[in-house]
């Protein structure tokens, strides 16, 4: 499980390091009609080389702070992908 802090409406989408205990992820979409959530799942899946079906919400679908389940990804892999 990974804590994620989402920054919607970003001009530069992608992983953006770690803030506190959360992986920061920037997405271009606005948080309207689930578009930012969909882009978040796609961005995270691509960053870790996973199929989109292997990334799912645990909690926080309506918040900037979310918990995601990344099937088959270790905490170490999250830190490396975030550049820390």
Fill in the CATH topology. Answer: Conserved Hypothetical Protein Mth637, Chain: A
CATH class: Alpha Beta
Major beta sheet, strand line-up: 2-3-1-5-4
How is the main sheet built?
A: 5 strands, mixed
In oligomeric terms, what are we looking at?
Answer: single chain
Encode the helix/strand succession as letters.
EEEHEEH
**Helical proportion?**
25-40%
Gyration radius, rounded: 11 Å
Structural class: alpha+beta
Q: Per DSSP, what share of the residues sits in E-state strands of 2 or more residues?
A: 25-35%
Mean residue pLDDT: 91
Q: Globular, elongated, flat, extended or rod-shaped: what is the shape?
A: globular
Total domain modules: 1
Per CATH, the superfamily is YggU-like
- Point out poorly predicted stretches: none
Q: Provide a count of the helices.
A: 2
Number of strands: 5
* CATH architectural designation: 2-Layer Sandwich
End-to-end span in angstroms? 18 Å
Short description:
The chain is 26% helix and 33% strand.
Task: Walk me through the structure.
By secondary structure, this protein is α+β, with helices and mostly antiparallel strands. The chain has a single domain, classed as Conserved Hypothetical Protein Mth637, Chain: A (2-Layer Sandwich), CATH 3.30.1200. The protein contains two helices and five strands. It has helices at 35-48, 75-82, and strands at residues 2-7, 14-19, 22-26, 55-59, 65-70. The protein has a five-stranded mixed sheet, covered by helices on one side. Strand 4 (55-59) and strand 5 (65-70) form a beta hairpin. The radius of gyration is 11 Å and the shape is globular. The two termini are 18 Å apart. The model has no long low-confidence stretch (mean pLDDT 91).
């Amino acid at each position: 499980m990974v804590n994620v802090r989402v920054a919607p409406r970003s001009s530069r989408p992608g992983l953006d390091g770690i803030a506190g205990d959360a992986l920061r992820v920037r997405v271009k979409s606005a948080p309207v009609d689930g578009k930012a959530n969909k882009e978040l799942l796609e961005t995270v899946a691509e960053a870790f080389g996973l199929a989109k079906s292997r990334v799912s919400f645990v909690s926080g679908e309506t918040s900037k702070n979310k918990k995601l389940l990344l099937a088959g990804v270790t905490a170490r892999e999250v830190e490396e992908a975030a550049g820390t």
